[in-house]
Structures are given as structure tokens and as C-alpha cells.
Design brief:
- This protein is α/β, with parallel strands linked by helices and 307 residues long.
- It folds into two domains: 10-37 and 135-305, Rossmann fold; 41-132, Rossmann fold (3-Layer(aba) Sandwich).
- It has twelve helices and ten strands.
- The strands form two sheets. Strands 1-2-10-7-8-9 form a six-stranded mixed sheet. A four-stranded parallel sheet has the order 5-4-3-6.
- Strand 4, helix 3 (90-98) and strand 5 form a beta-alpha-beta unit.
- Helix 2 packs parallel to helix 3 (90-98), helix 5 crosses helix 7 (165-176) and helix 6 crosses helix 7 (165-176).
- The longest helix has 15 residues, at 242-256.
- It starts with 9 loop residues before the first strand and ends with a helix.
- The model has no long low-confidence stretch (mean pLDDT 96).
- Bound molecules: pyridoxal-5'-phosphate (PLP).
- Residues 36, 38, 64-65, 131, 160-167, 216-217, 219, 261, 263-264, 289-291 line the site of pyridoxal-5'-phosphate (PLP).
């Protein structure tokens, strides 16, 4: 087994961004096993840690990161424990459990669950961070290798930012392929805008509270490396509302019959709404990062209640 991720589809969208001059390409990582791009970086990191002797893995994410660790552990034949707080939805626990991982539900919030996961890692299990690890970035970089291998040279890459792991990986992928000049549009929802906040302050600060429904973008502070990249690479930050992100999900669903989380819908919204920075770009590549924290009913409910 070479990698735990797949070479995902790269398709042109004639509809999303039809208000823009350029061509819009979707790199559909929603099709990855475990439903998001995290199969790349987390898959790669888990693989490397197991090669280096790890006998068990532990995560404290009840979202796509925890699911990616559970998936990787199953594929690598190694036990995984995912510690999640009591606020975690049953569906998320079931999905992680279905990958064969043990799920421990403990603590009132993430920091309490995380503290327990840290204890477990002291007993020998390798802790897998959701975004802040060079091995994860190295794995995420494969998304750029695939796009370039397909013969497409982007004029801009559009992606969503939570803690900035995907961002670090995409920059690494561009650099290692001699495309360090390709700019990035980094999209967040208002209320999960830790990257924009750091950009604006020109300081590695975070936000106090996550108020966006795009929980997969909900890192209060971005990775230090992501902050450093602001000075090293052309990265333009952009925010959309939760409502726009939800509309972005519906746009992808209606136009391409693919369902994703609002964390991903945010990037699609930036394109669909014709964000200024994209206006003169010829080949616009959107990383359709995916996410399993969504159902048709949930999307409908958001559409009705989020204004
Ligand atoms: C993890 C995740 C993100 C954010 O990725 P970071 O590496 O934390 O910036 C965005 N969208 C989805 C669907 C995710 O699972």
C-alpha cells in the first residue's frame, strides 16, 4: 500500500463561477476515503509514525481529523483511540466507531477531551494533531502534485482555512513543484476567522470564540507555520458569512451532485460570488475539501434557520 488517499477527480465547473472570466476547476477531495482531504496529510503522518514504530494512535477530534486518524489506523492495522467531548454528535461518534476506533466520550469541551488524549499519549500512543505537524503538510501537498500532473497549472488556488494545515500543505506542494508564484485565496467564515484576524493584526493572535456553524474551520488560533507563510507567499484572506457558505454547499449539490460541509462551501461561495481577487485569473482551482459533518436534513435546517 503506497498511500491512504486516492488521486481525486479534477473536474471543470461551467456553472460555479460562471460570472468570472476564467475557468473554474474543482479538485474534489470530498471523494477521498473518510470524506475529506485529511486522508492525505493525516494518512501520510499516521503511515510515517507507524513506520517509525508507533503501536497505537490517539486523536482528540470528533470531526474530520478524528475520522481520518480512525480510517488510517484501520488501514494500517493499528489501534486508534479518539477522545471526544460530551457535546459531540452521535453521528460523528458512530462514523469514527465504524472505522474500528475506540471512542472515549469525556469532558465538557474540547480542551478537557484533549487533556485526556494527552494522558493517553504519555502511555505510548502517538498523538496525531489535526493540523499542526510538518508531516501532515507534506501529505496535504500531494493535492498540488496531482493537479500539476494532470497538466493544469493554476493561476490561483482557492481553499478553506481552519488551523491552516491545508494551507501549509498547498504552499509546500506549490513550492516543491516550482510554482511558488501561484497565489492562494484563503477563505474562512465570519466567526471562524482566525487566519484573517492574524493577517489583519500582523501578529500571531487568535480569536476568543468560534461562532460559525462551519465547525471544521473552528481553530481559535492558526498554526505558527501558517502565520509565517503570510510573509513568504502571496496569500489573500477572504471571509464569507455562514449563509453564503451554506449557499455554496447547495450550489455544489445542485450543479455537481456532491454534498460537502459549510467549511468547504465557504470556498465555493468565494468563487460563486465572484470574489474580486479571482476576477482576472484564468485557471482557478478550488480545493473541494469535503467533510462528513453534513446530511441533507442538516443542510436544509441550516438553510431555513441561518440568516
Ligand atoms: C479540517 C478541515 C478544514 C480546515 O483545514 P485546516 O488544515 O485545519 O486549515 C476545512 N474543511 C474541512 C472539510 C476540514 O475537514
Amino acid at each position: 500500500m503506497k498511500y491512504l488517499h486516492i488521486n481525486s477527480p479534477l473536474i471543470e465547473s461551467l456553472s460555479i463561477g460562471n460570472n468570472l472570466r476564467g475557468n473554474v476547476w474543482l479538485k474534489v477531495d470530498a471523494m477521498q476515503p473518510c470524506g475529506s482531504f485529511k486522508a492525505r496529510g493525516i494518512g501520510y503522518a499516521c503511515q510515517k509514525y507507524v513506520e517509525n514504530g508507533a503501536k497505537a494512535l490517539v486523536s482528540s477530534s470528533g470531526g474530520n481529523a478524528g475520522l481520518a486518524v480512525a480510517y488510517s489506523g484501520r488501514r494500517l492495522n493499528i489501534p486508534v483511540t479518539v477522545v471526544v467531548p460530551k457535546t459531540t454528535k452521535k453521528r460523528a461518534i458512530d462514523l469514527i466507531g465504524a472505522e474500528g476506533a475506540s471512542v472515549i466520550v469525556t469532558g465538557e469541551d474540547w480542551s478537557e477531551a484533549h487533556a485526556h488524549a494527552t494522558e493517553l499519549s504519555k502511555e505510548g500512543a502517538k498523538y496525531i494533531h489535526p493540523f499542526d505537524d510538518p508531516k501532515i503538510w507534506q501529505g496535504h501537498a500531494s493535492v498540488i502534485d496531482e493537479i500539476l500532473n494532470a497538466g493544469l497549472k493554476p493561476d490561483v488556488v482557492v481553499l478553506s482555512v481552519g488551523g491552516g494545515g491545508l494551507l501549509c500543505g498547498v504552499v509546500e506542494g506549490l513550492k516543491r513543484n516550482g510554482c511558488g508564484d501561484v497565489p492562494i485565496l484563503a477563505v474562512e467564515t465570519i466567526g471562524a476567522d482566525s487566519f484573517s484576524t492574524a493577517c489583519l493584526a500582523k501578529e500571531h493572535i487568535g480569536i476568543d470564540k468560534i461562532t460559525s456553524i462551519a465547525t471544521s474551520l473552528g481553530a481559535k488560533k492558526i498554526a505558527k507555520r501558517a502565520f509565517q507563510l503570510i510573509d513568504e507567499h502571496e496569500i489573500v484572506n477572504h471571509t464569507v458569512t455562514d449563509k453564503e457558505a451554506i449557499d455554496g454547499c447547495f450550489r455544489l449539490l445542485d450543479d455537481h451532485r456532491i454534498m460537502v460541509e459549510p467549511a468547504c462551501g465557504a470556498s465555493l461561495a468565494a468563487v460563486a460570488n465572484g470574489c474580486d481577487f479571482l476576477r482576472e485569473k484564468l485557471n482557478i482551482v478550488v480545493i473541494v475539501c469535503g467533510g462528513v459533518g453534513v446530511t441533507m436534513n442538516q443542510l436544509e435546517e441550516w438553510r431555513q434557520h441561518v440568516t
